[in-house]
Amino acid sequence: MTTQLSVNLNAVAMLRNRRDLPWPDVAHLGRIALKAGASGLTVHPRPDQRHIRFTDLPVLRALIDDEFPQAEFNIEGYPTEDFLALCEATEPEQVTLVPDDPSQATSDHGWDFAQHQDFLKGVVARLKGKGMRVSLFADGDGSEAAVKAAVATGTDRIELYTGPYGGCFDDPDRAKAEIERLGLTADAALAHGLGINAGHDLTVANLPALVKRIPALAEVSIGHGLTADALEYGMAETVRRFRRACGQAV
Fold first, then answer.
1. Does 107 score more than 80 pLDDT?
2. Is the pLDDT of residue 60 over 90?
3. Does residue 200 carry a catalytic annotation?
4. Residue 28: which pLDDT band, with cuts at 50, 70 and 90?
5. pLDDT at residue 11 is higher than 90
């Protein structure tokens, strides 16, 4: 199984939003990423629209449908009624649900599946009933009990929150410990029939070890590190670099 790369466009959109101007063009950068072999695009439309705007969603949906029909659109966010309505209007291939407070700068923890199980069951059923794959943000803490509670929601996949792993870029020993915790969580999820995604603070440097430990990793969605590299290497070459880090032949 080859790990697929979904390019998160939030950081590109945040840069655009610094001025009342249409550049950098989010859809154009998405097109470059897909031409370079990215398997899909990810966005996280927050209520304040501080990066991705609601008006970006139909544009990106049309880009994929018209030019890259093999690619996938992944929309992530906290499942308010407004968010769910956006998803139903846009019809992404995948919806990733995160437990964020709207005021958070970025996602920084997974769901408490036991506490929110009934709530998530209803949301997951609603989205799957519309033909969307569902992934739930999950802490990579090695807890099989949490994985079992996630399974009970009816989700298709979990997305491992890799922030703690990405944060120990200068501590190899701690990185090994974090990657093993992620791996144990993935092992439990796979044993219970869940697919595995991952995301947050992943880089060209730390991706290969993650993919090696979790060879069944289906997809990584990467925005901040990828956008930072794109300032140096350009979007197309950066996508190729990340694809190689995922183990893809480029």
1. no
2. yes
3. yes
4. very high
5. yes
More confident residue, 104 or 121: 121
For this structure, is 44 an active site residue? yes
DSSP the chain: -PPEEEEE-HHHHHHHTTTTS--S-HHHHHHHHHHTT--EEEE---TT-SSS-TTHHHHHHHHHHHH-TTSEEEEEE---HHHHHHHHHH--SEEEE----TT-SS------TTTTHHHHHHHHHHHHHTT-EEEEEEE-S--HHHHHHHHTTT-SEEEEE-HHHHTTTT-HHHHHHHHHHHHHHHHHHHHTT-EEEEESS--TTTHHHHHHH-TT--EEEE-HHHHHHHHHH-HHHHHHHHHHHTT---
pLDDT digits (tens, 9 = 90+) for 130-161: 999 999 999 998 888 999 999 999 999 999 99
**Mean pLDDT in residue range 65-87:** 97
| Marked catalytic residue, from 51, 72, 178, 200 | 200
Query: Between the CA of residue 143 and those of 130, 152, 197, what are the distances in Å?
Result: 30, 15, 17
Catalytic member of 44, 51, 72, 178: 44
Topology, domain 4-245: TIM Barrel (3.20.20)
Indicate if 72 belongs to the active site.
Answer: no
Mean local confidence (pLDDT), 180-184: 97
Spans of all domains in the chain: 4-245
d(CA 51, CA 45): 7
Candidate list 72, 76, 159, 219, residue with the active-site label: 76
